[in-house]
Design goal:
The complex is a heterodimer of chains A (261) and B (359). Chain A has 261 residues and is an all-alpha fold. Chain A is built from eleven helices and no strands. Chain A has one domain: MetI-like fold, CATH 1.10.3720.10. Chain A has helices spanning 2-30, 47-54, 56-89, 95-107, 110-124, 130-154, 158-166, 171-200, 203-208, 216-225, 231-260. In chain A, helix 3 (56-89) runs antiparallel to helix 8. Chain A starts with a helix and ends with a helix. Chain B has 359 residues and is an alpha+beta fold. Chain B has two domains: 8-237, P-loop containing nucleotide triphosphate hydrolases (Rossmann fold, 3-Layer(aba) Sandwich), CATH 3.40.50; 243-358, RNA polymerase II/Efflux pump adaptor protein, barrel-sandwich hybrid domain (OB fold (Dihydrolipoamide Acetyltransferase, E2P)), CATH 2.40.50.100. Chain B has helices spanning 48-56, 98-108, 113-126, 142-154, 172-189, 200-206, 224-229, 234-239, 331-337; strands at residues 8-19, 22-33, 37-41, 63-68, 71-72, 83-86, 160-164, 193-197, 209-214, 217-222, 244-254, 257-262, 265-269, 280-285, 291-293, 299-308, 312-319, 324-330, 344-348, 354-358. A six-stranded mixed sheet of chain B has the order 6-7-8-3-9-10, with helices on both faces. A five-stranded antiparallel sheet of chain B has the order 13-12-11-14-20. Classes of the chains: A mainly alpha (261), B alpha+beta (359). Chains A and B meet through helix 7 and helix 8 of A and strand 6 and helix 2 of B.
Chain lengths: 261, 359
């Protein structure tokens, strides 16, 4: 048993290092004093973070990302929650098929979704517009909301809604007073997850965005392809920080909810 | 359509429900009187809960009508029916305090706040939990949760209270205590109650009348004593209370009443079911009606075991022909009989206490 324990600890450590190493390298490089990517860096400075804050291209990209992320997260959560409720609680003919269809963007390579959206948007004139980007992001974040809220609904006792109904609650009152409050942790975690996914999304944004409608990942992408300096590492580190905060919030939510059970 | 029964609060006629090929409820008709405590008793899958759910409006009947206070409700959604319901696993809202749980139906009815608050206080006192209003359901024991569910279902004084195996999840002593409490509330508030259980002793203790369900149909409906003393079918005889069965042959009647041949001995039975002489019948006798003697008439049997129950003794018998019976005797009578295991005895009974069911 002792030997197994050592082996297990070793395996876990190796996997951990493997997962963290790229992030750690990016993090370290973001504080580099050199104007090229080198690891380990010759010295340390905050110049790339300063560069980030002074470069209008990056600031615009952050602005666009936020403009896309907020409506995307709220739309996606609202639509996904409604869809999950209809699929789990409603008796819809072919509900299983509809559910599977809603989850396809999770399975289909996003480059295919992106190419499809691009062609559709060319026809609708939505390429390079904010609504176009938001709709595209909703398409790819929706499956996660449907899956998260759906599984929370499935584990919720349907008798609670039945009880509310017998006690005099209309379907809407039962949803608002009973179902929704009990789903709140799943809904909030969907909201956070949709934000992170949208903030991270590259391929859709690359296809349906434009030179003026660049999200942070698109800006990073073009930056890496052009003159390549550690500013990318700085923004990447910031992205990482944002994702970490979101995950932390989600974990806190989960814990609070866990204590409720 | 049938004429409504006078004085009936709830009337079901010809109610049917099927799930796919499975018939869950098959032509159920019954009437519940104002203030009555009616229990649906039956094994699981007998259609009792489905029938209750149709009364609540949580299931739709495929055929038949449900009339509450003279009004057809079978197309009405649950929230328009003015019915209260206690669920098996309480179904309290976990995110609301006890007070808010109980206030919920009042709130849905637009009861003014002050009035609602007074009614909630009253309901909490009624179920003996006056100081538990600010707790969350998960902070209460199972018995307390069920009391809250009861308060929540009664606080708005619905026309009818439904209970779906409300005590099923509780242990025996708590169950018996709550049985008495529910009975008390029923009496004091003159509630009309439809109660579902698979526990026959619970049904016998609590009900004004019992409807015995089997295979989606009502086998018999009547007062507990009717069901116990005069079961209408072999199923009811076997399901309500403990019963000994023995197969024999109908002999017809002589000067002393109906007779049945059991293991070659002519024994008396009540003449409620007159089977044609020569046909096979199943004779049912309650353990407390079985008489044992060492001499005289009766079906020969061997005493296999004598079980000590404190206030009573249970005799385990093997009758001629192989059937195993039990006889129940009060302590003093059992001691006076001086029968020992291994001994051969005669088993007999009075004709009025034996029922012969045609097979």
């Amino acid at each position: 048993m002792g030997a197994w324990r050592v082996l297990r600890a070793l395996a876990c450590t190796l996997v951990g290092i493997y997962l963290i190493a790229p992030l750690a390298i990016v993090l370290v490089i973001s504080f580099s004093s050199a104007s090229f990517l080198r690891f380990p860096p010759p010295g340390y400075s905050l110049r790339w973070y300063a560069n980030l804050m002074n470069d209008p291209a990056w600031l615009d990209a952050i602005g666009v990302s936020l403009q896309v992320l907020l409506p995307t997260a709220f739309l996606s959560t609202a639509l996904g929650t409604a869809a999950a409720y209809a699929l789990v609680r409603g008796r819809i003919r072919g509900g299983g098929l509809i559910g599977a269809f809603l989850l396809t963007p999770m399975v289909v390579p996003s480059i295919i979704t992106a190419a499809g959206l691009y062609m559709l948007y060319r026809w609708l004139g939505l390429n390079g517009t904010l609504p176009g980007l938001v709709i595209g992001h909703v398409v790819v974040t929706l499956p996660y909301v449907v899956a998260t809220v759906g599984s929370a609904l499935r584990s919720m006792d349907p008798r609670l809604e039945a009880a509310a109904s017998v006690l005099g609650a209309t379907p809407f009152a039962a949803f608002r007073r009973i179902t929704l409050p009990l789903l709140a942790p799943a809904v909030l975690s969907s909201l956070l997850f949709a934000m992170v996914l949208s903030f991270d999304e590259l391929i859709i944004s690359l296809f349906v965005g434009s030179a003026r409608m660049r999200t942070v990942p698109v800006q990073m992408w073009s930056n890496i392809r052009g003159d390549f300096d550690p500013t990318v590492a700085a923004i990447a580190s910031l992205c990482f920080l944002v994702a970490l905060i979101a995950l932390g919030c989600e974990a806190l939510l989960r814990r609070r909810n866990g204590e409720k059970e | 359509m049938t004429q409504p029964t006078a004085g009936a609060l709830l009337e079901l006629s010809g109610v049917r429900k099927r799930y796919g090929q499975q018939v869950a409820v098959d032509d159920v008709s019954l009437a519940l009187r104002e203030g009555e405590f009616l229990t649906f008793l039956g094994p699981s899958g007998s259609g009792k809960t489905t029938t209750l759910m149709m009364v609540a409006g949580l299931q739709q009947p495929d055929a038949g009508s449900i009339i509450l206070r003279g009004k057809a409700v079978d197309r009405l959604p649950p929230y328009k029916r003015d019915i209260g319901m206690v669920f098996q696993h309480y179904a309290l809202f976990p995110h609301m305090t006890v007070r808010r749980n109980i206030a919920f139906p009042l709130e849905m009815r637009g009861t003014p706040k002050a009035e609602a608050s007074r009614l909630v206080d009253e309901a909490l006192a009624m179920v003996g939990l006056p100081h538990h209003g600010e707790r969350l359901p998960r902070e209460l024991s199972g018995g307390q949760q069920q009391r809250v569910a009861l308060a929540r279902a009664m606080v708005y004084r619905p026309a009818l209270l439904l209970m779906d195996e409300p005590l099923g999840a509780l242990d025996k002593s708590l169950r018996e205590q709550l049985q008495l409490e529910i009975k008390r509330l029923h009496r004091e508030r003159r509630m009309s109650v439809l109660y579902v259980t698979h526990d026959q002793s619970e049904a016998l203790t609590m009900s004004d009348r019992i409807a015995v369900f089997n295979d989606g149909r009502i086998e018999q409906i009547g007062a507990p004593a009717d069901l116990y003393e005069r079961p209408a079918s072999r199923f009811v005889a076997g399901f309500v209370g403990e019963t000994n069965f023995l197969t024999g042959e109908a002999l017809g009647r002589d000067g002393n009443g109906a007779r049945v041949s059991l293991a070659g001995v002519a024994m008396p039975v009540s003449d409620r079911f007159l089977a044609t002489p020569g046909s096979r019948v199943s004779v049912a006798v309650r353990p407390e009606r079985v008489r044992l003697s060492t001499t005289g008439e009766g079906v020969p049997a061997e005493l296999v075991d004598l079980i000590y129950l404190g206030n009573a003794r249970r005799f385990v018998l093997r009758l001629a022909g192989g059937a195993e019976w039990t006889a129940l005797m009060q302590a003093d009578a059992a001691e006076a009989s001086e029968i020992e295991p291994g001994q051969t005895v005669r088993v007999s009974w009075q004709g009025m206490h034996a029922t012969a069911f045609p097979m």
